[in-house]
Design goal:
This protein has three domains: about 160 residues, Ribonuclease Z/Hydroxyacylglutathione hydrolase-like (Metallo-beta-lactamase, Chain A), CATH 3.60.15; about 110 residues, 3-Layer(aba) Sandwich (Oxidized Rhodanese, domain 1); about 100 residues, Rhodanese-like domain (Oxidized Rhodanese, domain 1), CATH 3.40.250. The longest helix is centred in the N-terminal third of the chain and has 16 residues. A hairpin with a 2-residue loop joins strand 3 and strand 4. The protein is built from 15 helices and 20 strands. It is globular, with a radius of gyration of 24 Å.
């Protein structure tokens, strides 16, 4: 049975709409629903109590993270009246009235960790005691007024990824079964079949190989989102149509992983994958493209000899923290909103932190006719390690968004 937090909305699937304080028996233990609106109206936490009625753990979902709390600006994309300020106020009271009174020794298990855009500054830790969070998490500071809480909560929030509100609707309305998604997507296609399906459906080719391999040779029109990173988050951020048909190019044995991770963020329309590798594609007589690349040492020499334009595609918070003097910030997150700022006649040297995002950025821009882009291998890490290019003074970031 699917248990849904208190709501007046009708779901598109059979579910038990629970009420605040409701208990669910599981053998000798029970789980109690604590309604904690703030991230969304129906947000709830689940309190685990053992057979001796001792409170053991709290599963906090998107209400309380390790080091942070859930952002309150997502539900407004679905219900206009639910402003961040209104939900933020609810969150303030949910934390103080439902969570903070619990014993300090219970273990907090949040729904997300570092890398998710559901919070501003989440820790990579997956659990902690409530007592430690009371000492270290700003949101649980008892001296914090509601006004100051809201100020801190809303500061530094950037627009959420486009797939977030679509996922909210899917969570309400329901979606295709995972078995069906996997069966449809796990369809091997020869190079000839792959090419025909692409032409007939207008499917987007998503290359999930490592960025260094993609850089050497790829199918023209493909975008690179490597499985060796935050694949699902970037797919959801960069593919605007959640119903987009997708064809995969993946390393051997990783097709199912790609289909599964796409499905986790609502992309359920994978229709097949290239059976073989990029060499099989070439041997079948089809053309390939590549990305021009440069090492940090050569970039530094070039920058000294002539004026060059450097694009930093990291998040604004990363750029503000430290960047190459003179570099232009064009975050990958907002590539589709900002790509009109580039000139197809100008050569740009593109970097991120290590090379993952810059390769993705260039692959997307190439689909739009921008072919004067050079990838800086190793990104800002390689540039810093070299020590030949001037960087701004480091400032500790206040947000990871």
């Amino acid at each position: 049975t699917i248990v849904y937090g208190p709501t007046s909305m009708e779901t598109g699937f059979k579910a038990h709409i629970a009420h605040d304080g409701e208990k669910f028996q599981l053998g000798d233990v029970h789980i109690q629903l604590l309604h904690t609106p703030g991230h969304t109206l129906e947000s709830s936490c689940y309190l685990l109590t053992d057979e001796e009625d001792e409170k053991i753990a709290l599963f906090t979902g998107d209400t309380l993270f390790i080091g942070d709390v859930g952002r309150p600006d997502l539900a407004q994309k679905v219900i206009a009246d639910l402003t961040p300020e209104k939900l933020g106020s609810m969150l303030y009271h949910s934390l103080r009235e439902k969570i903070m009174p619990l014993p300090d020794d219970i273990i907090i298990y949040p729904g997300h960790g570092a890398g998710s855009a559901c919070g501003k500054n989440m820790s990579a830790e997956t659990s902690d005691t409530l007592g430690n969070q009371k000492r270290t998490n700003y949101a649980l500071n008892t001296a914090l007024s509601e006004a100051d809480f809201l100020k801190e909560l809303l500061h530094g929030l950037t627009p959420p990824p486009g797939y977030f509100p679509k996922n909210v609707l899917m969570n309400i309305q329901g979606y295709t079964s995972f078995d069906e998604v996997m069966t449809k997507g796990n369809t091997p296609l020869s190079p000839e079949e792959f090419n025909k399906v692409k032409a007939a459906t207008g499917a987007l080719i998503v290359e999930t190989r490592h960025q260094k391999e993609f850089e050497k040779a790829f199918i023209p029109g493909a975008i690179n989102i490597s499985l060796d990173g935050n694949f699902a988050v970037w797919a959801g951020t960069l593919i605007p149509d959640i119903h987009q048909k997708i064809l995969l190019v993946a390393e051997p044995g990783r097709v199912k992983e790609a289909i599964k991770r796409l499905s986790r963020v609502g992309y359920d329309h994978t229709i097949g994958y290239l059976d073989g590798n990029i060499n099989d594609w070439k041997n079948a007589g089809f053309s390939v493209d590549f990305i021009e690349a440069i090492e940090a040492d050569a970039l530094a020499d070039l920058a000294q000899a002539e004026g060059i334009t450097i694009l930093d595609v990291r998040k604004k918070s990363e750029y503000d923290s430290e960047h190459v003097v003179g570099a232009i910030n064009l975050p990958l997150d907002y590539i589709r909103e900002n790509n009109g700022n580039l000139d197809k006649k100008v050569k740009y040297y593109v970097h991120c932190a290590s090379g993952y995002r810059s390769t993705t950025f260039i692959s997307i821009m190439k689909t739009q006719g921008y072919n004067n882009l050079v990838n800086v291998d190793g990104g800002i890490k390689a540039i810093k390690a070299l020590g030949k290019m001037e960087l701004t003074e480091y400032v500790c970031p206040t947000t990871l968004l």
